[in-house]
Amino acid sequence: MHMSKAKQKKQFYLLSLGCSKNTVDSNSMADLLLRAGFDAAGDPDDAGVLIVNTCGFIESARQESIGALRELAALKGPNQLLIAAGCMAQRYGNEVVEWVPGIDGVIGTRRWMDIVPFVRELRRRKHPQPLYHLPDEATTVGRDEHNVLRVAVQGASAYLKIADGCRRPCAFCAIPQIKGTHVSRPPAAIVAEAARLQAAGVRELILIAQDTTDYGHDLGLKNGLSFLLREIAAAAPDIPWIRLMYAYPGYVTDELIETMATTPQIVPYLDIPLQHGHRETLKRMRRPANIEWVYGTVEKLRAAMPDIAIRTTFIVGYPGETDEEFDGLKTFVRDLRFDRVGAFTYSYEASTPSATVSWQVDEDVKQARQAELMELQQAISLARNQAQVGRVLPVLIEGHGDGLSVGRTYRDAPEIDGLVLIPGELPLGELVPVRIDGAMTYDLTGQPVFGDEVISGPVVSGSVSRAENGAAIPLAMLPVIE
């Protein structure tokens, strides 16, 4: 039986593509729609409003977004609205409608908070031309948030967005074009959300932004990220893990290192995308090219936190990358022995400064270099994992299957790093002490520990609480902190 037009009209279907930062924006739009009296639909056939929060960072993401929009456009009925939102919408504007006929509205990253009036305006329009809402002003956060949550909860973990946009000049990156300049959220709003997440039983808080280490610069805060971390830890003392992502080279300050080392809730883990390890390549990338700073800072991090896990990412095949420069990157990786590395081939993006460099590296060379770098890193990652064997580490249990429990240690961020495989069914959403007894390149195996054995990883603080069955906590169920 088909749903009535009236009921369908008040339902929305929202598909979120891309990174965790996009997921937060999607949840914020959903929150605003729910407050306005809409209901979320699990099936696009049941919804009057179809929204795709697109990713447009690189070409492969653009193609995925176009494919999702075309699929919904082909299924769309006469009473349904199709909206392209997010990064691809902001970056390409009216081109999106040329690629996907049938789109009714295009709303960009900088005005997600206008989704409700945008839908209402689309409904009022009597002409079929698409409606665009793509202002240049970067008001992604701050005064226009409508007190909406800027979080994405997945099981017992939550991503909390502390800022949006970026003011860095990286030659390969379109984020400043898409998101605008860096805008920090008010500290009080972030701290209040952390308290709400604690009350909801979240066990891991993951701070995200395009550049977390730039937090507070626009608010006049010196060492703003250190200040924010201390405030969050004080306001949410029962969240045992606070994880920091997307640090920018050159801005991991001595104060930040000290704050991480002296605040037990902040796990000794840092994601710092370095992008390359050769000075000349970094200069062409318009990235910080002080290689000595990287060596010195990694040494400081490991001295302050001997158990720290450091994750980074590299781009291979960047325009002009010579054999000598690639060899320099390999030496850099051998020297610093990062725990986790992601290697990506350079993606040509026409609107970025790197597209104007005449010497583009052949695709087969890019692929060969990526494989070579990852082969080099795999031996390092395996050795770093093998060093965990015999330790008792707290593991956040996230799933069951085939007689095993699956979880993560503090050394692993969700979705991008490794897992721990443990026999039996352990309580979902809880931190369980596990003795590590085996190591693979990316994953570990272990046995649960009962009794008084000492945990040799970071201290687990706070009382245990969890979402039922480890499921994501709906935003509407999060407690309100006055």
Automatic annotation (TrEMBL):
Catalytic activity: L-aspartate(89)-[ribosomal protein uS12]-hydrogen + (sulfur carrier)-SH + AH2 + 2 S-adenosyl-L-methionine = 3-methylsulfanyl-L-aspartate(89)-[ribosomal protein uS12]-hydrogen + (sulfur carrier)-H + 5'-deoxyadenosine + L-methionine + A + S-adenosyl-L-homocysteine + 2 H(+)
InterPro entries in the cross-refs: Elp3/MiaA/NifB-like_rSAM, Methylthiotransferase, Methylthiotransferase_CS, Methylthiotransferase_N, Methylthiotransferase_N_sf, NA-bd_OB-fold, Ribosomal_uS12_MeSTrfase_RimO, rSAM
Protein's GO biological process: tRNA methylthiolation
EC number: 2.8.4.4
The TRAM domain, residue ranges: 386-450
UniProt keyword Ribonucleoprotein present: yes
Record bears the keyword Kinase: no
Cofactor field: [4Fe-4S] cluster
Purpose: Catalyzes the methylthiolation of an aspartic acid residue of ribosomal protein uS12.
Family under the similarity heading: Belongs to the methylthiotransferase family. RimO subfamily.
Protein name, entry field: Ribosomal protein uS12 methylthiotransferase RimO
Organism, scientific name: Candidatus Promineifilum breve
Lineage, highest ranks first: Bacteria, Bacillati, Chloroflexota, Ardenticatenia, Candidatus Promineifilales
